[in-house]
Amino acid sequence: QEKIIIAIDGFSSTGKSTVAKQIAKHLGYIYIDSGAMYRAVTFFAMTQGFIDNEKFNIEGLISKLKSIDIGFKFNEDLGFAEVYLNGENIENQIRTLEVSNFVSIVSAIPELRQQLVLQQQKMGIKKGVVMDGRDIGTVVFPDAELKLFMTASADTRALRRFQELKSKGENVLYEDVLKNVQERDYLDSTRADSPLFKADDAIEIDNSNMSMEEQFETILKLVMAVL
Ligand code: C5P
């Protein structure tokens, strides 16, 4: 059976990664979280002092881009690949609200997008990949065999993200999470380079009222129809 590329785009916290992991596991495909790559660079910018409260030294970060090596390594116990920055596992450090608050500013840098998109395209050369993000069906893999565009109400998404952060022990307020989700949606869909939008040939899925099982079954049917 020929392997395909499945591109999943959508707004923040729409459950893209959850279903992408399930589908990849079911098909024996590789799951790639492109957002983790932008988060890793944001984490780098924060720890190297390029982002300091309100000040963001964009030029400084751009000058260091070539020295940033982002990789993934499969973790057998977790069942998915964790993200590495210059050889260091930073999977747990990139999911904080602090990183989320800066990532959309960092991800708007064209020089950075160019570098990461190239790396993402290389990871998909042999197909058999499920990748989620904001520009996968539009820029990274415009010829993907299946493109999905996930949506859900901002409240639903903020509540999901809030519960996720809480369960990880982060002390956050629901209002702050909602604000972050809305701000990222706005920045991601209005930036000049590769803004988030639904590709013409993407199938839109609103999962506001879907259980995880329903979502998986719905998407699996779409996958089977193109395989
Ligand atoms: O998917 P996740 O919410 O972890 O992505 C974090 C951020 O990374 C997004 O809000 C967006 O700014 C950026 N991103 C992007 N392009 C992608 C994936 C993520 O610009 N393909």
UniProtKB/TrEMBL annotation:
It is found in: Cytoplasm. GO terms for molecular function: kinase activity. ATP binds at G10, F11, S12, S13, T14, G15, K16, S17, T18. Its EC number is 2.7.4.25. It catalyses: dCMP + ATP = dCDP + ADP; CMP + ATP = CDP + ADP. InterPro entries: Cytidylate_kin (IPR003136), Cytidylate_kinase_dom (IPR011994), P-loop_NTPase (IPR027417). The keyword S-adenosyl-L-methionine does not apply. Residues 6-223 form the Cytidylate kinase domain. SUPFAM superfamilies: P-loop containing nucleoside triphosphate hydrolases. HAMAP family: Cytidyl_kinase_type1. This is Cytidylate kinase.
